[in-house]
Every structure is written in structure tokens, then in C-alpha cells.
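Appendix C reproduces, verbatim, an entry submitted by the partner laboratory led by Prof. M.T., so that reviewers can inspect both the input and the predicted structure.
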Amino acid sequence: MSKEVTKNVEGMKTCRRARKASCSKDILSALEDRVVTIEKSMGDINERIDDAEERIDDVDDRIHDGLQSMQEELKEYVLDSVEKLNGRDDAIEAMITTLKEEIAELKGELTNYKAALGNGGLAAVATKPSVDVPKPKEFKGTSYARDMDNFLWVIEQYFSAKSIMEDATKVTTAVMYLTDVTLLWWHRRSTDVRHSGIEIGT
């Protein structure tokens, strides 16, 4: 009886051992599967990390290139601005030099005027008094050449006294002293001239 019990007990122990071994194998197999899965996951993670690093490197390169381009553009802008400012400085210096020369000339003229005034030259620089110039008499026209010559001489003296030098002003002023037949003649004459396009001189 004891032998049979012993055999049964040993058989049960053997079964338990076999079961334990089988369970251990299953656990090991499951662990191996998990390790493989983890390794695959780690491989995917490493690939993602590598891809992210490549993208980061690409972004860094772009940022570096962009900064370098901006630095070059900024440098060109600064150099161009400095060159323009230097040109303006040269222009300002030239203007200042010109103004200094003009001031020196004015000072020289002022010194000469002061010397002239000190030497009694006031009368030389004094303005001329205005003279009341009598107006010429109206010219009605005549058959005598002497009357025509007298009118022309008087009108020339009037121009000289009034400092009238331009021909157009002389003609306009002389017409103001024509009347009757001479004014009618002038009206026809000026109309013909306007049509022909020829100016009337003195």
C-alpha cells in the first residue's frame, strides 16, 4: 500500500514538474515574443528619431542659410547707406566751402563800403533824386517834317529820362501820345502787322 502511494505521489510530482516546465516554456516564449516586439518598437522609435534628427538638421541648415543671407543683405544695405551718407557729407562740405567764400567776399565788399564812407564817399553811393519828367505833347499829325522830327526827339528824351530801354515798351508808350489822324494810321498799321506776323521795332 505504501509503495502504491509512493508511486502515486511521485507520479503527481512528476506531472507537476512537467506542468511547471511547460509553464516555464510558455512564459519564456511569451517573454521572447515581448522582447521581439519591444525590439521592433525600439527599431521604429530609432527610425523616427533618426528622421526627426534629419529634419532638425535640415531646419538648422535652412535657418543658417537664411541668417547668412540676411546678414549679407544687411551688410550691403549698411554699406550702401554709409556710401550715400559720405556723398551727402561731401556735398554739404562743398556747400559750406562755397558759403564761406561768399561770406568772405561780402565781408570784403563791406570793408570797401565802410572805407568809402569813411573817406567821404557817401555822396558817390547815395541814390539819385527822382526827377519829375514832363510828358510829351500829343501828336495829331502834320505835313511838316520838322514837327515830326521834334515829336520824335521829345519822345526819345522822355524815354531816356524815364530809363525806358526796351523797344516794345517804347512803342507802347509812344502810341499813348498819338491822336486823330496819327492814331488812326497806327491802328491800321498795327492791324496789318498782326496779320503779317512782323514785329514793329523802334
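The first helix runs from residue 2 to 118. Additional entries are available on request from the coordinating office.
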